[in-house]
Amino acid sequence: MDQRELPCFAEEPLGAGEKLEPLSAGFSVITSAAHTFNTDTILLANYSMPRRNELCADFGTGCGTIPLLWCARSCPRQVYAVELQQEACLLARRSVRLNRLEDQVQIVQEDINTLRQTRSLPLNLDLIACNPPYQPNGAGHQNNRPERRIARHEVACSFSNIAAVAAAFLRWGGRFVFCLRPERLCAAMLTLHAAGLEPKRLRFVQQRAGKAPFLFLMQAVRGGRPGLTVEPVLLIESKNGGWSEEMLEIYGDYKEGRG
After folding, report:
1. Which CATH number belongs to the domain containing residue 44 in this structure?
2. What gap in Å lies between CA 98 and CA 190, rounded to an integer?
């Protein structure tokens, strides 16, 4: 997509604690202390990159980073960005306006658990991505701030619910792409099978060579045939301690702001 000039920020003034984060040439996202993004978000956006003219959804979109990266680097027909928390939805809607994507990205304030009842999304989607809470409810220390507790622990929606809802909205052969911590891999695969989603691609992410993976990325296909491809490990750092060549490619022009 061609580089475009961003509109004057008089249209979308920043509030206290908010930042304008550049994502790609001509695309930026508004973040706050409560609703931001990290390397995992960038990796998932890249791993789940839509094909041209696909109908897509992002479950738990937060401030809307993944839909914006999809539109910056691909050309999906329509993206439905689902988010429960009102403050995050307001940020995401402002970023959509800022990037002039109102006709391409729709922010849906909805509980994932009720999507099948309300039918707030169309059926037969080509792609659904989700960066789910990494901790089961009750595991580990839970943050006192509700927005962070919802993002990190399955207090609002479990991975089994997310998988079941994704399967309900995907077309036959549609793709569900997500990331989780490696300790949840076996349980996640059982959950996918129960939802009718066949794991097809798996990639582990390591900080550097010799370290254990801290993340995995997976693509599952609704009604897919058995057969899982385990892809080469993605290394965050090079031997010299800077970004690896692949990470520089994934970050693209966003890397200039990463140091």
Report:
1. 3.40.50.150
2. 41
